[in-house]
Amino acid sequence: MTDTLTPVLSDNWDAERSWTLDSYADGGGYDALKTALGMEPGALIDLVKDSGLRGRGGAGFPTGMKWGFIPQDNPNPKYLVVNADESEPGTCKDIPLMMASPHTLVEGVIISAYAIRANHAFIYVRGEVLHVIRRLQRAVQEAYLAGHLGKDIHGSGYDLELVVHAGAGAYICGEETALLDSLEGRRGQPRLRPPFPAVAGLYASPTVINNVESIASVPSIVRNGASWFGSMGTEKSKGMTLYSLSGHVTRPGQYEAPLGITLRQLLDLAGGVREGHELKFWTPGGSSTPILTAEHLDVPLDYEGVGAAGSMLGTKALQVFDETTCVVRAVLRWTEFYKHESCGKCTPCREGTWWLVQTLARLEKGQGTEADLETLLDQCDNILGRSFCALGDGATSPITSSIQYFRDEYVAHFEHGGCPFDPAKSTLFAPAGAHA
């Protein structure tokens, strides 16, 4: 592994007015675009394939391979859509990136759209982050004025129109096909696949949908080469990425490091768990990934390592919880979120998340029994793999994993007739009667 921290995407975040075109250009911004326009689109796709870049939105699918799925013999227009609808609890990497250096994303969009031969691109942004939308819109305007967007970009004969689209604040629109429906003006709900977006996506035309960080990584690959990118990370999970540390850490924030770093190393960089406390559990990729515990501190944070530990790397949203946290209450809060954000299109998710909340709420109040734990697991089993999209699966992950690692804590709730957590003493399993 290379150096512990590898600032690439975040390298210019501390520059004066880093979000402006002048500042970005001073650091070599848009040089990669000029290089890319001198290459054949197919060669760009091969370059991204060779680099080993995998989707940074959660699934980890090879980016270059996704680009290669676009059928170039299809007479319909090709579209590039950037998924900037960052909504996963604990995930906070794309918004800082777009705020600090929106031109990194804009340059990535132009290069990526050129590679797949698309003449229209969209950045779909979560509607609540109005400050980000405004910053992106200004960056796009600057790019048009500088000739990086529009007709005959830098005399290459290539045309591209880029639109920043504000969503309406629905978590489900982070799912790529629900995002497409929303972009088309319909209610955001997942589509049944096939057909896949690469064949029939936006307006029933070939479409590539990538996460902000995936697209923002493209200029650095064009500028420095596939070998440079592959020199970071691990054999199957190459490159650098943004890890978001939040929760009970001394210095929460974004830490850009090679894939394969461990939480122990990241915690050392972040000053450790807050003073006087110790790690209890954590999420490797947001609240929809199975939780892990202190025994997993040395698991490599790459797609294979986290998968082998029984979880998913996801969005690399590392939420850290110390011993003062009631795991049942934390899981209940997450489940309430998924129930609220379910689009209601499929029965397992619409009905299942509602029943998960009812059962968890009863357990958290100390009104449940051991049988309710089995009912809870049975409910999860009936949702997992049976819903249109991953929202249903994600809702079950924190529940099943928390019961796996903290079953005693669930049992203690109904044995004590309520939550056994004593906030005054910051301990768990306090004597009966000391309920939060």
Question: Main traits of this protein?
Answer:
436 residues, alpha/beta, Rossmann fold, Ubiquitin-like (UB roll), de novo design (two linked rop proteins), 5-stranded mixed β-sheet, 4-stranded parallel β-sheet, globular, translocase, 4Fe-4S, Nuop51_4Fe4S-bd, NAD, quinone
The gist of it:
The protein is about 40% helix and about 10% strand. The chain has about 425 residues and is of the alpha/beta class.
List the helices and strands and how they pair.
Layout: H1 21-26, H2 31-37, H3 41-51, H4 63-68, E1 79-84, H5 94-100, H6 102-115, E2 120-125, H7 130-145, E3 161-166, H8 176-183, H9 197-200, E4 207-211, H10 212-216, H11 218-224, H12 226-230, E5 240-247, E6 253-258, H13 263-269, E7 279-283, E8 292-293, H14 303-308, E9 317-322, H15 327-341, H16 347-364, H17 370-383, H18 390-416
Parallel strand pairs: 1-2, 1-4, 2-3, 5-9
Antiparallel strand pairs: 5-6, 7-8, 7-9
What does this 3D model show about the protein?
The chain is an alpha/beta fold. The protein has three domains: 21-224, Rossmann fold; 240-285 and 295-310, Ubiquitin-like (UB roll) (Roll); 327-416, de novo design (two linked rop proteins). 42% of the residues lie in helices and 11% in strands. The chain has 18 helices and nine strands. It has helices at 21-26, 31-37, 41-51, 63-68, 94-100, 102-115, 130-145, 176-183, 197-200, 212-216, 218-224, 226-230, 263-269, 303-308, 327-341, 347-364, 370-383, 390-416; strands at residues 79-84, 120-125, 161-166, 207-211, 240-247, 253-258, 279-283, 292-293, 317-322. A five-stranded mixed sheet has the order 6-5-9-7-8, sandwiched between helices. Strands 3-2-1-4 form a four-stranded parallel sheet, sandwiched between helices. A hairpin with a 5-residue loop joins strand 5 (240-247) and strand 6 (253-258). Helix 3 (41-51) packs across helix 6. The two termini are 45 Å apart. Mean pLDDT is 94; it is low at 425-436. Its cofactor is [4Fe-4S] cluster; FMN. Keywords: 4Fe-4S, Flavoprotein, FMN, Iron, Iron-sulfur, Metal-binding, NAD, Oxidoreductase, Quinone, Translocase. Belongs to the complex I 51 kDa subunit family. GO terms for molecular function: 4 iron, 4 sulfur cluster binding; FMN binding; metal ion binding; NAD binding; NADH dehydrogenase (ubiquinone) activity; NADH dehydrogenase activity; quinone binding. One of its GO terms (biological process) is cellular respiration.
